[in-house]
Amino acid sequence: MNDAVSTADLVDEHGAQLRVCDTQFRQFGAVHAFSGRIRTISCYEDNGLVKELLNSPGEGRVLVVDGRGSLRTALTGDLIAKAAADNGWAGLVLNGAVRDSAMLATLPLGIKALGTNPRKSAKAGAGAVDVPVGFGGVTFTPGDQLYADDDGVVLLPSGS
């Protein structure tokens, strides 16, 4: 994590102000603890917007992608994730699947997702960027501060 604060410590410190995502993610990147202001994408089995955004400067942010929990296609693989690392993104939180998991484990990037599927997703760019997305009992609003580690994902509202 950028500031080395654990999610459990953050829960103890902030109580109800901190939003805790109940989704049980798997770790895929080489970085298991990461944090940053979030940007969001809402999409379904289409990673065109994911690829576009991760090929732009990340400035230490975390991309949260609501793929509506689909495990039928992967929303990112090694090439897109490498672009994210190369462009300064701190991490990805995907309510969906990834592929190339062995390669993802070598990248200097935090990656949390539901699981894996080798099938590619569509590339049409369908979806929306920087809109509030919700899963795991919380709403992810662009600009919120996200912290992730082996215990889970938590959010502090923008301005906290």
Tally of separate domains:
1
Report the average pLDDT across residues.
95
Main beta-sheet annotation: 10 strands, mixed
Give the low-confidence spans. none
Write down the CATH topology: Glucose Oxidase, domain 1
Number of helices: 4
CATH second-level architecture? 3-Layer(bba) Sandwich
Query: How many β-strand runs?
Result: 12
Could you name the CATH class?
Alpha Beta
Structural class: alpha/beta
User: Cα distance, first to last residue?
Assistant: 17 Å
Instruction: Estimate the strand proportion.
Output: 25-35%
Topology as H/E string? HEEEHEEHEHEEEEEE
What percent of residues adopt helix (DSSP H or I)? 10-25%
Shape: globular
CATH superfamily: Ribonuclease E inhibitor RraA/RraA-like
Pfam families: RraA-like
Binding site for Mg(2+): 100
Binding site for substrate: 77-80, 99
GO molecular function: 4-hydroxy-4-methyl-2-oxoglutarate aldolase activity; metal ion binding; oxaloacetate decarboxylase activity; ribonuclease inhibitor activity
Short note summarizing the structure:
The protein is built from four helices and twelve strands. The protein is an alpha/beta fold.
Q: Can you put this structure into words, describing what you see?
A:
The protein is an alpha/beta fold and about 160 residues long. It has a single domain, classed as Ribonuclease E inhibitor RraA/RraA-like (Glucose Oxidase, domain 1), CATH 3.50.30. It has four helices and twelve strands. It has helices spanning about 5-15, 50-55, 80-85, 100-105, and strands spanning about 20, 25, 35-40, 60-65, 75, 90-100, 110-115, 130, 135, 140, 145-150, 150-155. Strands 1, 2, 3, 4, 5, 6, 7, 8, 11 and 12 form a ten-stranded mixed beta sheet that branches. It has a two-stranded antiparallel sheet with strand order 9-10. It is globular, with a radius of gyration of 14 Å. The mean pLDDT is about 95.
